[in-house]
Amino acid sequence: MNRLPLAALSLTALALSACVMNGANPAGGLRAPQIRTPQAPARGARSNGKVSHVIVVIQENRSFENFFAGYPGANAPTSGCASPTPSPAPRMPVAPAATPPAPSSGSGCPPGDVQVPLHSVTFTNNPDLRHDWRSSMTDWNNGQMDGFTAWGVKNGQYKAYAYLKQSEIQPYWTMAQQYVLADEMFPTEFGGSFTAHLTLVAGTDDISLPGKAEVNFPTHAPDDCDSPQGTVSSYVTQNPYRKLHLFQGPFPCFDQFNTMAQVLDKNKVSWRYYATRRLDGGFWEPFEAIKYVRYGQDWKTNIIAPQTKFLKDAKHGNLAAVSWVTPSGPDSDHPTYLSDLGPSWVASVVNAVGEGPDWNTSAIIVIWDDWGGFYDNAPPPQLDYRGLGIRVPCLIISPYAKQGYVSHVQYEYGSILRFIEDVNGIPAGAIGHTVNGYTDKRAKGLGDAFDFSQPPRQFVPIQSKYPMSHFINEPPSNDPVDTE
Predict the structure, then answer these.
(1) Residue 338, CA distances (Å) to 122, 124, 275 in order
(2) Whose CB among 85, 140, 204, 441 lies 3.0–4.6 Å from 437's, allowing a Cys bridge?
(3) What is the distance between the alpha carbons of residues 76 and 91, in angstroms, rounded to a whole number?
(4) Does the global pTM surpass 0.85?
(5) Which of 443, 450, 388, 421 has its CA nearest to residue 179?
(6) What is the per-residue pLDDT across 197-222, written as a single tens digit (0 to 9) for each?
(7) In the chain, what are the domains?
């Protein structure tokens, strides 16, 4: 999806500010929902040294139900609640298409809602929906999870109420059937890819205290330290509650918060971030927006491009202790590319580890950065003014992962960072204090997904449509990876 010009965005934002969203108070602001007090975090994954390689594979723009609707044992119904009169779609008019016939009301939906069946789509005909801060507020609708109808109708069906056929994403279902599917993984914050990737390496994106966090995306690509002079970002505040300050934030070269880079460097734990490009990598290479990395020694040694080098590193036993692996655009599951390569790309990453010498000491976490605007039924727990955001899929693959297990533990992106700390003997909360916005200590550990008392399971290759050779020989992409 192309980014709107700054002037157009500003004008649209001013127009939207006059609209009253569902759940708005008389003054036009969002009501602050009851903030859930986090339960005591689950104990960390006590791997006793059995895991020494953590690989975080990051894909794009899918809700849990968009990929796993109907999965046995998971919270994944094949129908959803829909508000007949949704909030106006942020920065995107709802086309005056013919309204589909009103289905009968379904049990469990908010009063006045209707229950609609999810319809199946393929990678070549799925919609590219808005997925910024305002659109997440619309979809979430103060926890009613019924605002997705704002995105209009196509072929007589609500566009956001869609799921991928199992045949389209069979490698992901195979991974879930052989290992662990987590059906309670929530992003740190509502909104899209820019802040999601920051929080996947930092557990926060707070730019000042009390209560100011990055939101949406900066005004100019590549959205990081290499953006042109005059680039600004946006932020959201705790007080006034969840007020969006468009284009009033800092230049996107951050030193306002720590990341795992500082933690791993301090503890002499090796790490690499695999991306399509090192320079001008955009949203999917968040360390280019972190001053400590961009202008430090890590920039030359730990940012690896292109991302396909991971396949050779894994096959040859050359993995770092911690790896983040991002895709090219066509390999990303991002709807805008209309490409079915994503599941095979992830299968190649998993197979490279599984068939390499480091399998017995590895844990692979496959995560999607945001919900992509697609319907999901699970109201995200509200732990602070940033979120948690709308639920995304999560797969956990390891010789010590439970087999065919659905984990119902409430996870967040900080759970992944805590797992990295746990297996490396680093105290939870090493990035920073919870009171300062960091989430790795409050987050529940991933221990529920593992059985470290079992011997390592032999790896069985994941079958996929496209072979690993397709990706090893894939030319580097110079396309901008994402704009929202």
Answers:
(1) 9, 5, 21
(2) 204
(3) 29
(4) yes
(5) 450
(6) 999 999 999 999 889 999 999 999 99
(7) 53-68+167-204+255-472 (3.40.720.10)
